[in-house]
Design goal:
single chain; mainly alpha
């Protein structure tokens, strides 16, 4: 009986000590916590607090009654979306553009970083970096405007070259078959330089002694890239691949909306633009919220699955 009575008191001492150590650690590093507090506040206020509004996806939202006062309808909006005429077209286009962007846009910054890392002429290297970084700072509206000018069937320089070689002008911006390629290739042009920065930083962290030892052993530059540089940045590649897979269905609507027209709607209509039409133009807030929630859940599931596979295969993961 005596041992049983003393057991809670014995367990309370370590718990109290742990709390004291935790608070001592926080007080000792209060500058770091103060530095990160604005970021934490931002995510709480603008990322987590708005999740309160997710419930309208399960309600028939009426503005005059507010979120709490609107009646519950369960999964009615999800059922309507799954059975709609546009469902498979939206899934096919969204997933198609996402996979196309991943297949083309993900490896190119890696290749660019590997090539720039091998350049020894500093002036030439800085020139290439400036040229490849500059498109990142152009707005989406400017990029789409440039595409319309260059690809114009009457005045565009691309169609002038086609006509020079005996071809017929192509109205690229209205052809459904060209939409995905135009979207992805223009996105690669705009982002590849900026995306390569993180790989260049990872390459800078590789021990130069490994390259010196490889040179002594007679390894060529290509062999050193393959056996030293790529394995050295592989953890960075895997982490960014996981993050990209987690947003494969999260294609932003701005650029698609600017490139979209009635003639290419068959290939350009994606979940984001459909949500915009239903939510903003048609004022079907609950229905559009349900579609957006469905899209977010798919992205979350993909992120968890890919992270799990990566952890099992390469022992590199987000958590």
């Amino acid at each position: 009986m005596a041992n049983t009575a003393l057991q809670p008191a014995a367990n309370a001492v370590p718990e109290t000590k742990r709390k004291r150590l935790l608070w001592n650690r926080i007080l000792r590093n209060w500058q770091l916590y103060a530095l990160i507090s604005p970021v934490i506040a931002y995510y709480i206020l603008f990322q987590y607090v708005p999740m309160y509004g997710i419930q309208i996806a399960f309600k028939d939202f009426i503005a005059t009654q507010g979120i709490w006062g609107s009646p519950w309808v369960g999964f009615e909006h999800f059922d309507r979306f799954f059975n709609s005429y546009y469902f498979w077209r939206l899934i096919k286009n969204t997933l198609g553009i996402g996979l196309y962007s991943l297949a083309v846009g993900f490896p190119i910054p890696i290749i660019l970083a590997l090539l720039m890392n091998e350049v020894r002429a500093e002036r030439f290297k800085k020139f290439v970096q400036t040229i490849t970084y500059a498109p990142h700072f152009l707005s989406t509206v400017v990029v789409v405007g440039m595409m319309m000018i260059f690809l114009s069937p009457r005045y565009g320089i691309i169609n002038h070259f086609i006509e020079m070689f005996g071809g017929q002008p192509i109205n690229f911006m209205t052809e459904p078959s060209w939409f995905k390629s135009l979207y992805v290739l223009s996105d690669v042009w705009q982002t590849m330089g900026w995306s390569s920065i993180i790989y260049l930083a990872a390459l800078a962290g590789i021990d130069n002694q490994l390259h010196e030892a490889a040179r002594v052993d007679g390894a060529t530059r290509l062999q050193r890239i393959w056996h030293i540089n790529i394995p050295g940045i592989m953890p960075t590649i895997i982490i960014l691949l996981i993050l990209n897979m987690g947003s494969i269905m999260g294609i932003g609507f701005e650029k698609v909306l600017l490139m979209q027209n009635n003639l290419n709607m068959e290939s350009s209509d994606i979940i984001a633009t459909y949500v915009y039409r239903m939510g903003i133009q048609n004022a079907e807030y609950s229905f559009s919220a349900a579609i957006g929630l469905f899209n977010s859940v798919i992205n979350f599931v993909l992120l968890v699955v890919v992270n799990f596979i990566s952890k099992r295969v390469s022992e590199t993961s987000l958590w």
